[in-house]
Structure prediction request, 412 residues.
Amino acid sequence: MGVLAEVYEKLNTCGRCGFCHGACKTYKKDGAEYMVSRGRVQLIKALADGKVDADHDYEDAINSCLLCGECAIACPSGVRAHELVLVARRDLKLRKGIKPFAKSLVLSSLTKPGRLSFGFGFFAGFGKKMLNGLASGMQFYRGIDVLTMPASKVAFAKQVPEVITVPNPKRKVAFYVGCFMNHSLVETAHSVVKVLTKNDCEVIVPREQPCCGLPQYVYGDFESAKAQAKKVIDNFGKYDTIITACASCASQLKKEMIELFHDEPAYLPKVQEFAAKCYEFSEFVAKELEISDKLKNETPVIVTYHDPCHMVRYNTITEQPRKLLKSVPRLNYVEMFEANRCCGAAGLVQAFYHELSSAITADKAQNIINTGADVVATSCPACMLKINSGLKLKGSKTQIKHVADVLAAALD
Prediction:
């Protein structure tokens, strides 16, 4: 039974009532029982009991889960099915390794800074030119607008000084950029620095920016995830305040990393001490900075907000970004329908289950369009990429921006 034995009793707590059917996005799009939390839990239990094999269909059921956590909110029995799926993915990794090879390649590349820099640099140069020369029908690959996807030849952490000073700093913060923001959304990273420095924060941007380990963790490669976590702690642990503007990275640094090391009691206190010093960007700005008096805006704009899953359910950070957006003058905030529901990005799910993912994104894009918003703000680079693609596929001109981008524009 392996690692499934550790959660076997939790598998038995599912009452099979079906409340999760109304919450599960994958079930709503696919309709198959194995694509809902109840079905996935029963499949995992059947594998633990030796009644089914870990075949291709089983892998699809486990790996297509968005890990959004919405089912846990709906479950009257308190079953946290997404956490059981994580254990099932760990079990699959121990049985078979990471499959397919393309997924294994992506996950391993994230742990190798040189390979990551080369990949984004190549795409930013020759790759973009090659795409521009192809037919317009090639713009969207697996539901992602690859033609306009940002990519930088030089990582953000190498574009700025390692210490960005300000006169009479009131605070000193370290900026954990995150892989995607460091190599793709570099303008958003600059926005983060601008907001912090305009509010008297000295910002430290260490050259070494290791992957936080979340991608490896969610696919069961705990060994690689731990190695990455230790690199992050080694590089950032000496600072008193660590900020990241990536919702997924924030969740890993503040929460998942603690769970990852629960079996290493000697090292766990160090992880807990580190996690206590970590903040998501809007969480820190709303709590620690007096920013509203500095914000200016002459052009009326309608803005709505999308809650990333790692913000709203994993870390319950939901009011802070809204508070910051509403503090911008002449910004008309409109709440969208199902603002806190998953956009379909879900890490690598959008790449390997792109039809399912894109169908979920289409619903989110329509909800955004229905608000009449000029801008949809959010706090997750993966959500930004996926929502932008969904909006463009619908022909919408609504812009997707990070909360930091909205605030930075109002600080000019």
In short: The two ends are 59 Å apart (CA to CA). The chain has a mean pLDDT of 92. The longest helix spans residues 113-132. The chain has 21 helices and eleven strands.
